[in-house]
C-alpha cells in the first residue's frame, strides 16, 4: 500500500520539470483559475481558445489534457474543471477535493505531477490546501488486487506530487502536508480492507491485521476470541458468529493522550461483518458479493484509530470493532432465538439478516461499561439508508449534541450525513411478547427501517452518553466507476468525519 510522495513548491509552475502539470479551469469564460497565471502567460493568450477547441467547459471534475509543445517545462497540461467562478477567494472545498482527485486519477502512468491549483494566501489557506492534498492522495489510490500476471496497458498511480503553494516554507502548510499523509494512509488502509475478497478477510484474520497495525502505531490492543466473548456475555456477537467456521472477534484499540488530566473519553464503534449472507434469512444471490463491504464501519474505526495514534489529539479515544461472519449453517442462529446481550437485555430475533445491530449492541454496551462521554458508531446497517438518502449521504441518528457534531464535521470534510429521527412509534413496533425488544419490527414491517436500526441501538447506550449512529450502507462502498477522489470499492467514509469530530472535541 504505497501512496504518492508529497512535496510543496513555490517556484514558477511553468518551469517545473515534471511529467504533467494540473491547473484549475472555471466555467463560462474558461478562465484558468488562480495559480495558473504563469502557465496562461506562457501560452501567450491562446490557452482559453485551445481548451475550448478541445471541448473543455470547466464543469466540476471535467479533465482536459493537452500537449504543451514546449510552452512550459511540463510536456503535459491537465485542466480540471472547478465550476463557476467562486464567490469567495477559493472554490468550494469539495469541488476542489473531487477535481484534484479526478485529475490525479487521470494522470495514472505519470511519475511526477505538479498541481498549480487555486490556493489562497490568507487565513483560509490551510483548509483549502488540506482539500487539495486529500483529493490528490485519495484519487491516487488503487487496490493491488489478486491478478497473477501484470495487466497490459495498466498504468501505475502517480508516484510523486509537487503542490504549488504561495510559500513552501510556511509552517501551517508543512503541518497540513504531514496531516494529509496520515489521513490518506488511514483511508487507503480502510479501502484495502474493504476491497479484500471475503475469503481473504475472515474474522480472525481481520482482527489480526487490525491488531498488528494498531500495535505498530503504538495503540493498546485487546482482542477477545470466541471463548472470551462467550465468557464475557457478548451474546449478540456470539450468536451472529456461530453460523461460521471462522469465529467472531471483538477488537478494542485504545489511545491515551499524554499530559492531559481527565481527558474527554470518546468511543468509536464499527460494524465488522466480513461477509453478510443474511444467515438463515438468506439474501437473494444478485449482488450478494457486495456484502464483502459489510465491515466498512469497522475498517473506518480501525483506520481512524491508526490516524489518531499519529495525530495525538488531547482526548482519550477507544475504537471497538465488532467482527463476525454472518453465514447460514447447522449451527447458525435462527429467527425466534432469544439472545442475552452484553448489557443483559434480551433480544428476540426475527430476521438473521439484521445481524449488524446484534454485534453492535454488544460493542456499544461494552464501550459504555468502559466509560465513555461520547460514542460514535458507524455501520453499513440498513438498505433503508440507501433508499432514503442515497449513496452519498449517510443516515444520522442519536442525541442532539453528538449528531450535530457529526453533521457539521461531515459537511467540512465532504462526507455529508443527514439527521433522522428516533420515533416512539417505531420503538413500539419493536415490542416483543417474550423478550425485552425485537430485533426488527415485530410484524416484519419494513416501514422506516433505517430508523428501526437507530431505535434498536439506542437500547445499548447508557443514559448520559452523547451518541451518534452513522449508517453508511450507501456511502461506505462505491460500486460504480471511479469519480472524483472515490475509486471503485471501499470509500473510507466516515474516517475523515470521525477525525474531524475527535479534533473538534
Ligand atoms: N448489511 C446489510 C445492510 C446493507 C444493505 C448494507 C445494502 C449495504 C447495502 C444489513 O445487515 C441488512 O441486511 N439489513 C437488512 C435489515 C432488515 C433485515 C431489517 C436490510 O437492510 O434489509
Ligand atoms: Mn444483514
Ligand atoms: Zn449486514
TrEMBL record:
Pfam families xrefs: Peptidase_M17 (PF00883), Peptidase_M17_N (PF02789)
Q: Which family does it belong to?
A: Belongs to the peptidase M17 family.
Q: Where in the cell is it found?
A: Cytoplasm
Q: Domain of life here?
A: Bacteria
Taxonomy of origin reads: Bacteria, Bacillati, Actinomycetota, Actinomycetes, Micromonosporales
Detail which positions bind Mn(2+) 2. Answer: 271, 276, 294, 355
From the Swiss-Prot or TrEMBL record, give the protein name: Probable cytosol aminopeptidase
The record's free-text note on cofactor binding: Binds 2 manganese ions per subunit.
Which SUPFAM superfamilies does the protein's record reference? Macro domain-like, Zn-dependent exopeptidases
What organism does the record attribute this protein to? Actinoplanes siamensis
Q: What is the role of this chain?
A: Presumably involved in the processing and regular turnover of intracellular proteins. Catalyzes the removal of unsubstituted N-terminal amino acids from various peptides.
* GO MF entries: manganese ion binding; metalloaminopeptidase activity
Q: Where is the active site?
A: 283, 357
The GO biological-process annotations, alphabetized, read as:
proteolysis
Cofactor (UniProt): Mn(2+)
Q: Which residues participate in Mn(2+) 1 binding?
A: 276, 353, 355
| A GO-annotated cellular component | cytoplasm
